Task: inverse folding
C-alpha cells in the first residue's frame, strides 16, 4: 500500500514535467492546428546550449536554465519560420514532414557541437529528499510540480486576461476573421510559438536537471511524451495538458514498479492506444473537429 | 559497384515501405504504424527462414499475411479516431510493437550457435542469401521484381473502381459516405493492404541486412514511411519511388561526401521541396504534363 | 471614397477577377450583384487583403491599399463583414466586440462604442455573456456587423449579409444597413438578394465572370433584367 502510494507520488512528480511539455505543445497545436515534430528537438538544442555553457564555462544552474530557455526559443522560432509560416492553408502534412526534416537537422547540429553520446547536466538541487511519514519527496520534483502549476496559471492568464490573449483566441477560433478585425496574425502566431518553446525549455531544463545527463535522443523523447500527455488530456485544454501529463506519469511509475523498466514504456503505449481509441477527445477536450487536410493528387 | 547495388537494395525496400503508407494516405489517414508492420514482417520472415528453414518466397508471403492481419486488427479500433488523434494512436501502436521486439526472445540451439531474436540485442545471423548462394546482384534483381509487382498491382488498383473509392474517402469522407461507400470497410482495407506491403518490405529488409534490432523500427522510420508519399505526391505510385530516390539516393547517399554536414542540408532541402511543392514532387499537374510528353500527341484526357 | 481599378486576382492559373474597376461613393450604399462564381467574394477578400491580387489598384481616398497586410487595411479604415459571418464561436458576444476593436488603444471610447452597439442591437446586449457560436444566424450576422463597426471603419464592406437567413431577419438586416448609412457610414455591399439590395442601394454594379458588366442606379435597369443577370448571368446570345 505504501509502495502504491509512493509510486503514485513519484509518478505525479515526473508527470508534472510531462504536463509542462504538453502545455507548450497545446499552445502550438491550438494556434497552428498542425503537428510540430520538432518541438522536442528545439528543446534539445536549448539543452545542448545549456550543457555547453556548463562544461565550457562552468555556468551555474540558473544560467544554464536561462540558456536552455533562450536556446529553445531560438530553435522554436527557426522551426516556425521554416516549417509553418510559409506553408499555405491546407498543407498541414507538408508542415509535419518539414518539421520532421528539421528534427533530423537539429539532431545533427547538436552532434556536431558536442559529439559524445551523453553529456553531464547540472543538478537543480542536491538537497536530501523530504520525509513525510513513510513517504519521500525529492526537492527537485517539488520544484517541477510548482513550475508546472505556475506556468499553467500564467498561460491561462495571458489567454484570458490580456489583449494579446484575446487576439490569440480569436486566431484559434477563426484565422480569417482574425485577419479581418485587424489582428496581426502572423506576428501573434510567432510570439505564441516562441512562448510555447520557452515553456518547453523550462520543462526540458527541469527534466534534465533531475536526470543529470543529456543526449541527442532527448528531442524525440520530449516530442513523444509531450504529444502523448497532450492527447490524453484532451486537445486544446490547458488543465487537460497538465492532467494528461500527471496521468501518464502515474501509469508509467506503476507499470515500472509492477512490470519492470523494460516493460514500462510498452505498457504506457498500449494504455495510450486503448485510451485514444475509447475516448478520442481525451480527458477534458472535446473530440477534435479539426482534421489534417491532405494534399490530394487528383 | 557494390555501393550502387547496396543503394538499389535500400531504395527498393524503402519504396515498399513508402508504398505501404501511400495506400493508407489515399484514404486521408496519416499512419505512423507502418514501421511497426515493417518490423513484424522482418521478424516473422527472419524466424521462418532461420528457425524453421523455410525458403524465402513462402516466408515473405506469410510475413505479409501476418503484418496484414495485424494491420487489419489495428485498423478497426484505430480508425475510430481521425487526424492528429490517428497520428498519435498509430505512433503508440508502432512504438508498442518496437518495444515488444525489444523484450522478445526466442532462440534455438544450432550447433554451437544460438539463433533467433534475442531481446535488445536483436536478431542476428539471418543468413539466407549467403547460405543459398545468392549474389548481391541476385538480391537486387529479386527486390526490384517484388517492387515492380507491388507497384503494378497498386497502379492497377488506382485505376480501378476500388482506387476511385479510396480517393473519394480521402477527399471527402462525408460525401463518400452519403454516396453509399462503407467508410470503415474502405479504411480497414487500405490499412490491410498497407500492412501486407510493409510486411513484404520488412521481410526483405531482414534478409539483406542479416541483422535486425528494435531500434531500427522506431518513429524515425515511421516518419520516413509517410514522408516518401507526401514528398512524392499522391497522384500516383511513381511519386513515392521518385521521393525515395531523392531522399535515399540523393540526399543521404549523394551528399555523403559532406560528412557531418549532410543532415543539416538534408533537412533544409526537404523543407524547400515542401515549400515549393506542398502537394509533392509529382502532383497531378506534372503527371498530366509528363503523360502528354510520352503519349506524343494522343489525347491526354483527365488524370 | 474607394477606387478600384483594373484589379486582377487569380487562383493558380484561373483568374477570378479579370480587371475589375469600380468606384464606391462616400456616404452612400453601393451594391455589387452577380451570379455565384462571378468573383464577388474574391473581390471583397482582395480589398480586405486576405487575397493577394496580381495587379491593379485599390485606393481609399487616394491611399493605395494593395500590398498592405489585412491588419494595416483595417487600420486605414476598411472593415469587412465576411460571408458566413465568421464570428469567433468559442468567445462571448462581448469578447467578439473587443476583438473587433483590437487595434484601438482608446479604452474609454471602446467601452462607449460597445454600449452604442448594445443600444443599436439590443439582442446582443441580452446575450453579451453567451458564446457567439450558440447564437442564431440572424444574431450572428448582427454580431458580425457590430464587430466590424468596432474598428470605426470609413468604409464598411459586407459580403452577402442575407445568406441563409429567414426572410423576416433579412428585412431586419437591410433596415439596419439603411440605418447605418443614414448615420453616415459608407457601405459597399455584395448581395445575391437583388430585390432587397436594389431597395437600399444608391448605385449598383453587375458582375459576371470576373468582370463588371453594368453600372448604374436602381431603376436604370428593369428589376427583372437585373435579377435575371444577377442569378443566372447574361444570356449567351451566341
Result:
Amino acid at each position: 500500500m505504501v509502495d502504491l502510494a509512493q509510486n503514485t507520488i513519484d509518478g505525479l512528480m515526473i508527470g508534472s514535467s510531462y504536463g509542462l511539455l504538453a502545455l507548450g505543445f497545446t499552445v502550438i497545436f491550438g494556434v497552428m492546428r498542425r503537428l510540430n515534430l520538432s518541438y522536442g528537438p528545439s528543446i534539445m538544442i536549448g539543452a545542448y546550449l545549456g550543457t555547453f555553457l556548463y562544461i565550457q564555462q562552468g555556468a551555474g544552474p540558473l544560467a544554464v536554465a536561462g540558456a536552455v530557455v533562450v536556446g529553445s526559443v531560438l530553435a522554436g522560432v527557426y522551426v516556425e519560420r521554416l516549417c509553418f509560416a510559409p506553408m499555405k492553408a491546407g498543407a498541414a502534412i507538408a508542415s509535419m514532414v518539414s518539421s520532421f526534416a528539421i528534427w533530423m537537422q537539429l539532431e545533427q547540429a547538436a552532434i556536431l557541437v558536442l559529439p559524445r553520446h551523453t553529456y553531464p547536466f547540472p543538478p537543480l538541487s542536491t538537497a536530501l529528499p523530504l520525509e513525510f511519514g513513510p513517504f519521500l519527496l525529492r526537492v527537485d520534483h517539488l520544484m517541477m510540480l510548482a513550475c508546472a502549476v505556475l506556468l499553467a496559471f500564467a498561460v491561462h492568464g495571458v489567454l484570458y486576461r490580456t489583449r494579446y490573449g484575446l487576439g490569440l483566441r480569436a486566431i484559434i477560433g477563426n484565422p480569417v476573421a482574425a485577419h479581418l478585425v485587424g489582428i496581426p496574425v502572423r506576428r501573434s502566431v510567432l510570439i505564441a510559438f516562441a512562448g510555447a518553446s520557452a515553456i518547453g525549455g523550462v520543462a526540458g531544463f527541469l527534466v534534465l536537471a533531475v536526470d543529470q545527463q543529456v543526449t541527442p535522443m532527448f528531442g524525440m523523447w520530449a516530442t513523444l511524451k509531450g504529444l502523448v500527455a497532450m492527447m490524453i488530456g484532451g486537445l486544446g485544454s490547458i488543465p487537460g495538458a497538465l492532467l494528461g501529463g500527471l496521468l501518464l506519469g502515474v501509469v508509467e511509475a506503476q507499470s515500472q514498479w509492477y512490470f519492470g523498466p523494460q516493460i514500462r514504456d510498452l505498457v504506457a503505449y498500449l494504455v495510450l492506444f486503448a485510451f485514444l481509441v475509447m475516448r478520442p477527445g481525451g480527458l477534458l477536450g472535446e473530440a477534435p473537429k479539426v482534421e489534417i487536410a491532405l494534399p490530394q493528387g487528383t | 559497384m557494390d555501393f550502387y547495388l547496396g543503394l538499389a537494395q535500400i531504395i527498393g525496400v524503402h519504396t515498399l515501405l513508402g508504398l505501404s503508407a501511400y495506400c493508407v494516405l489515399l484514404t486521408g489517414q496519416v499512419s505512423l504504424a507502418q514501421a511497426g508492420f515493417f518490423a513484424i514482417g522482418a521478424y516473422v520472415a527472419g524466424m521462418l527462414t532461420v528457425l524453421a528453414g523455410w525458403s524465402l518466397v513462402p516466408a515473405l508471403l506469410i510475413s505479409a499475411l501476418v503484418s496484414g492481419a495485424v494491420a487489419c486488427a489495428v485498423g478497426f479500433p484505430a480508425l475510430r479516431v481521425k487526424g492528429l488523434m490517428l497520428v498519435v494512436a498509430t505512433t503508440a501502436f508502432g512504438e508498442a510493437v518496437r518495444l515488444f521486439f525489444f523484450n522478445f526472445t526466442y532462440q534455438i540451439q544450432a550447433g554451437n550457435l544460438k539463433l533467433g531474436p534475442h531481446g535488445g540485442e536483436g536478431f542476428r545471423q539471418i543468413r539466407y542469401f549467403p547460405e543459398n548462394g545468392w549474389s548481391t546482384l541476385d538480391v537486387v534483381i529479386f527486390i526490384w521484381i517484388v517492387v515492380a509487382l507491388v507497384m503494378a498491382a497498386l497502379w492497377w488498383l488506382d485505376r480501378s473502381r476500388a482506387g476511385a473509392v479510396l480517393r473519394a474517402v480521402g477527399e471527402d469522407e462525408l460525401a463518400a459516405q452519403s454516396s453509399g461507400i462503407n467508410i470503415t470497410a474502405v479504411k480497414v482495407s487500405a490499412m490491410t493492404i498497407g500492412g501486407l506491403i510493409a510486411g513484404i518490405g520488412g521481410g526483405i529488409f531482414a534478409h539483406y541486412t542479416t541483422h535486425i534490432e528494435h531500434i531500427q523500427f522506431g518513429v524515425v522510420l515511421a516518419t520516413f514511411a509517410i514522408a516518401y508519399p507526401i514528398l512524392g505526391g499522391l497522384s500516383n505510385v511513381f511519386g513515392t519511388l521518385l521521393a525515395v530516390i531523392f531522399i535515399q539516393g540523393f540526399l543521404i547517399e549523394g551528399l555523403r561526401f559532406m560528412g557531418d554536414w549532410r543532415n543539416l542540408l538534408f533537412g533544409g532541402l526537404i523543407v524547400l521541396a515542401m515549400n515549393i511543392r506542398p502537394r509533392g514532387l509529382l502532383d497531378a499537374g506534372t503527371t498530366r504534363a509528363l503523360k502528354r510528353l510520352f503519349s506524343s500527341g494522343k489525347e491526354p484526357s483527365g488524370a | 471614397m474607394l477606387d478600384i481599378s483594373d484589379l486582377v486576382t487569380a487562383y493558380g492559373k484561373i483568374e477570378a477577377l479579370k480587371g475589375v474597376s469600380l468606384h464606391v461613393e462616400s456616404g452612400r450604399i453601393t451594391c455589387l450583384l452577380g451570379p455565384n462564381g462571378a468573383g464577388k467574394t474574391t473581390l471583397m477578400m482582395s480589398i480586405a487583403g486576405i487575397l493577394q491580387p496580381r495587379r491593379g489598384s485599390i485606393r481609399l481616398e487616394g491611399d493605395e491599399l494593395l500590398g498592405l497586410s489585412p491588419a494595416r487595411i483595417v487600420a486605414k479604415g476598411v472593415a469587412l463583414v465576411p460571408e458566413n459571418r465568421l464570428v469567433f464561436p468559442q468567445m462571448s458576444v462581448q469578447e467578439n466586440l473587443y476583438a473587433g476593436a483590437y487595434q484601438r488603444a482608446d479604452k474609454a471610447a471602446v467601452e462607449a462604442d460597445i454600449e452604442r452597439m448594445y443600444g443599436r442591437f439590443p439582442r446582443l446586449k441580452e446575450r453579451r455573456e453567451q458564446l457567439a457560436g450558440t447564437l442564431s444566424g440572424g444574431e450572428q450576422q448582427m454580431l458580425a456587423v457590430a464587430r466590424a463597426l468596432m474598428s470605426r471603419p470609413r468604409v464598411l464592406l459586407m459580403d452577402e449579409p442575407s445568406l441563409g437567413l429567414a426572410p423576416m431577419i433579412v428585412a431586419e438586416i437591410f433596415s439596419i444597413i439603411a440605418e447605418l448609412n443614414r448615420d453616415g457610414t459608407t457601405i459597399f455591399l455584395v448581395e445575391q438578394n437583388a430585390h432587397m439590395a436594389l431597395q437600399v442601394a444608391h448605385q449598383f454594379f453587375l458582375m459576371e465572370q470576373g468582370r463588371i458588366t453594368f453600372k448604374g442606379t436602381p431603376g436604370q435597369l428593369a428589376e427583372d433584367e437585373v435579377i435575371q443577370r444577377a442569378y443566372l448571368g447574361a444570356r449567351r446570345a451566341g
Remarks:
- Strands of chain B lie at 108-110, 113-115.
- The two ends of chain B are 39 Å apart (CA to CA).
- The longest strand of chain B covers residues 108-110.
- Residues 2-218 of chain B form one domain.
